[in-house]
Amino acid sequence: MTVKPRKTRAATTPDAEGPTLERRARAKDAGQAEELGTGRLRRILDPFDVMRSTRALAPHDPKLNDIRWLVGEALRRVHHRAQLDTLRAVATDRIGSTGFGSRSGLPASEIALHARDKIRAAEAKAGPAAWPIVTRIILEGSGVRECRGFVPEIATPWRVDAVVTDRLRVALDQMGDLMGVTAGRR
Questions:
Q1: Do residues 122 and 160 make contact, with C-beta atoms less than 8 angstroms apart?
Q2: pLDDT > 90: what percent of the chain?
Q3: Contact 131/123 with Cβ under 8 angstroms?
Q4: At what angle do helices 62-81 and 157-179 cross, to 10 degrees?
Q5: What are the phi and psi torsion angles at 82 (to 5°)?
Q6: Which of 32, 68, 69, 158 is within CB 3.0–4.6 Å of 27 for a Cys-Cys bond?
Q7: Cα–Cα distance measured from residue 100 to residue 178, given in angstroms and rounded to the nearest whole number
Q8: Is 30 helix (H, G, I), strand (E, B) or coil?
Q9: 122-161 pLDDT, tens per residue?
Q10: Confidence label for 74 from pLDDT (cuts 50, 70 and 90)
Q11: Are 45 and 75 in contact (CB under 8 A)?
Q12: Within 13 A of 155's CA, how many CA atoms are on the CB side?
């Protein structure tokens, strides 16, 4: 008698816990792949998400690891709102044809300006040594190895990787308040 494998709920419902369409598009543009993972239908192989799952952001504190990842995700959302991803052209005949009535809140141009101001403030908080690393890993989706050129004074690869990771951690800690992600009281 053979036992059939039991189907889990996540495997039967499509995209129940999968990434959003925006993250899939960003991963495809960056040349990253999706793979089937255990417990989830799809897992995007984004280096920053891998750093979270392997606890590279805070090896000894899982809560701090998640907080640093949330700061990075907030930075990604602000960067997307700032419309710094690509140049956009809008056909004039489509203006005002996408919805009913006016949008609540600020106009899109004001939202982008506020987001750009927040990006500049995040750059100032991270500092000139860490900001290129933050943009390369979090916003562009590169790994730690691709950031070795930002630390030319150290020759040993594993030390360079440690310095890059440390600069990323410190920058995420500095930007937490600005991005609205802080640890609660214990």
A1: no
A2: 41
A3: yes
A4: 70
A5: -75, -10
A6: 32
A7: 34
A8: coil
A9: 999 999 999 999 999 999 888 999 999 999 999 899 999 9
A10: very high
A11: no
A12: 0
CB 82 within 8 A of CB 119: yes
User: Which residues make beta-bridge pairs with 40?
Assistant: 37
- Cβ–Cβ under 8 Å, residues 62 and 45: no
HSE-CB of 163 using CA atoms within 13 angstroms: 16
> In one letter, which amino acid is 26?
R
Beta bridge partners of 91: none
Place of tokens 């956009």: 88
What are the residue boundaries of the structural domains of the chain, listed by start? 47-93+107-179
Burial of 173 (0-12, 13-18, 19+ CB in 10 A): middle
Cβ atoms 125, 91 nearer than 8 A: no
Q: What 3-state DSSP class applies to 106?
A: coil
Say what the pTM is. 0.67
Tokens for 122, please give them: 């995040």
